[in-house]
Specification:
With about 325 residues, the chain is of the alpha+beta class. The chain is built from ten helices and 14 strands.
Amino acid sequence: MKRKSLTFIFSVLVLMLALPASGRDLKVLYWNIQNGMWADQENNYDNFVEYVKSQDPDICVWCEAESRYRTGTNVKMTEYDEFYLPWNWDFLARRYGHQYVLVCGKRDTFPQVITSKYPVRIVKRVNGNGDDIIVVHGAGWAQVEVGGKEINIVTLHTWPQRYAYKAENQAESGKKQEGDVFRAKEMKYICDQTIGTVPDAASQYWMMLGDFNAVSRVDNSIYGFDEDNKAFLVHDYVSGNTPYIDIVDRLHPGDFQKSTLSGRRIDFIYMTEPLFRKVRSAEIIHDGYPTSCRDPRGVTKFCYPSDHYPIIVNLKF
């Protein structure tokens, strides 16, 4: 073999050894799907399934993952109706390629559900202490192993109202923003029961995601609230007391992305630094199937397909 050929082969081998391993891609899709994707019930969830298949996520986290209203109406289902979700998520998830399903956080009819291409297990369901702390919609701590790495996933959906849970005078409670105070107590309890139980969590892979029903002061250029507004209590607690990073804000500084049709960002994905370093992109999706609009018939107060937008995160391990 000629010297030039040997030199060329040797150079190629050196270059190949110098290149990093391609790693494992991981796509996470989070979405509050409004009453168990109420908008697509009558269509056998075909539009929903096709959208998820088109994104080909590895892990999905769904908020409001339970059927609640009769198709095309705002009439609540009763015990005589067929509640397809959450009990049939295994069948629905298989249609878009996920074989693992976990009802992660559920205290009432607004659960969070994880579906995945990878085995997922529950570590803890967080519903409150049964006394002075109530996590109204429930929260959960799950674990997924990807490429030999363990990822902790905390799902949540906090209290949505301006007034406090079970407030006797809702109007007065709302004026005092007692709902924000209640949400902050939920948030502290959820963190205390999950990431707060692990001393070295900051060096591990953790994400916390869901419908926080609270705005962050990092977006206050949009809202224009007073700096001491109680609306910031939830995210102030997270940023001041946990190792979590708001990944959408970190990747898009100064570029506000709403997560609801109302124009607010109340859906968040937080990650610890080691997991955040794996993130290649994180976007709130406003176009295509997730494009949100009010019921055009004016029959219900709901939206098509949801009043929230999905968040898609791409990671490289």
